[in-house]
Amino acid sequence: MTIRMDLMPGPEVSSGASRAIPIARPILDSEEAEAVARVLRTGWISQGPEVAAFEEDFAAATGARHACAVANCTAALHLALIAFGVGADDEVVTVSHSFIATANAVRYTGARPVFVDVDRVNGNILPDRIEEALTARTKALLVVHQLGMPCDLTAILDITRRRGLPVIEDAACAIGSEILVDGRWEAIGRPHGDVACFSFHPRKVVTTGDGGMLTTADRQLDAQFRLLRQHGMSVSDRVRHGSNRVIAEQYGLLGYNYRMTDIQAAVGRVQLRRLPAMIRERREMAAVYGELLCSVPGLRLPQEPNWAKSNWQSYLVRLPGEANQTAVMQCMLDSGISTRRGVMCSHREPAYRGADWRAGRSPVGGQVDLPNSEWLQDHGVLLPLFPGLSRGEQEIIADRLRASLALARP
Ligand SMILES: *Cc1c(COP(=O)(O)O)cnc(C)c1O
């Protein structure tokens, strides 16, 4: 039995629209269902042995020394920032051009997000714009592997190591992506910065419904995450449960309830076993898009630098300058193909109006100098890409995109 879910229809999709090809679709079948049933029958369903096993599997899959599971990636980002002591009066250099959770996590700590512009090809932070954004208040860098495409960690770490700044990688979309380090391909999340944060939302490559993971090589950081995710509790309930002596726990710091459940972890372990095959399939589909779309006039395709391999969590094309993004997407939807606009810019959302943030060098409340971030949001379109999408469907998508571009001429 295969449970196929048509994901994320979103409020912008009218209920009458036929969505023959969704934007994304996770693989969930009887293996996940049986894993969940097995955990339910054990009677231990919150953070327990299954979460611990998932953490071990995840560390093995990414080459990380430590992996700590949490409720979602937003929680992971929040804990990573707290662990580095980020708080009020601090600044965290990051990007506006990301899902809003990236910048929100900085704001949760009371710190000010400082937005650096991104490159126009893949939407990743421009390393040569980082230095000018740093001040005496900069406490950390929060970089994103946008849509699964690795950002230029080598160039970024070159800047931050000289200054002793911690680097947190928002790897929400990047499970299974790789970068070339000293001639070797290494998985994102090893991590190459100090901490990497992953998401298991259904729009990502591996899903547990909701869920997140922090990876690090630093044992003390990992211990800190474990305290923070469970109210700062000194002895976990699993240890107390297994003890034949009475143990009283203590709460030494202000923690959170950011636990993952064993039910979610059971799903995650099955999903991880599927990862290599899913990445292979996604990379093949991206290559097929490259072949089908390279001749579309004015259309620009994503490109892997020679030091990166994307997991192709999403396939972002950039429309010709004169094309109307909404009209093209509507045309596609009318012919049964779901697309999404390019990655959002947090600074353009009402939640950021009047909030404490600044862009690059510009002073607080000053001019917003993020031209590439805004351009990509307005000209980018994400095409469907998920395991099981056939070559025939990709051909249909390519044909419809070509036709939509012709129809949606201004
Ligand atoms: C999805 C996503 C998040 C948030 O992940 P959740 O698990 O939903 O909290 C954060 N950052 C980026 C770049 C994302 O794509």
Q: How would you describe the overall organization of this protein?
A:
There is one protein chain. The chain has 410 residues and is of the alpha/beta class. The protein has a single domain (2-407), classed as Aspartate Aminotransferase, domain 2 (3-Layer(aba) Sandwich), CATH 3.40.640. The protein contains 11 helices and 16 strands. The protein has helices at 30-42, 49-62, 73-83, 101-108, 153-163, 219-228, 237-242, 262-293, 325-334, 371-379, 391-407; strands at residues 2-3, 28-29, 66-70, 91-94, 112-115, 138-144, 167-170, 178-181, 184-187, 195-199, 212-216, 308-309, 315-318, 340-341, 358-359, 380-383. The chain has an 8-stranded mixed β-sheet. Helix 1 (30-42) packs antiparallel against helix 8 and helix 9 (325-334) packs across helix 11. The termini are far apart. Mean pLDDT is 93; it is low at 1-18.
Which oligomeric form is depicted? Answer: single chain
> Would you identify the CATH architecture?
3-Layer(aba) Sandwich
How many helical stretches? 11
Number of strands: 16
Helix content: 25-40%
| CATH class category | Alpha Beta
Mean pLDDT: 93
Concise account of the structure shown:
By secondary structure, the chain is α/β, with parallel strands linked by helices. It has helices at 30-42, 49-62, 73-83, 101-108, 153-163, 219-228, 237-242, 262-293, 325-334, 371-379, 391-407; strands at residues 2-3, 28-29, 66-70, 91-94, 112-115, 138-144, 167-170, 178-181, 184-187, 195-199, 212-216, 308-309, 315-318, 340-341, 358-359, 380-383. The longest helix has 32 residues, at 262-293.
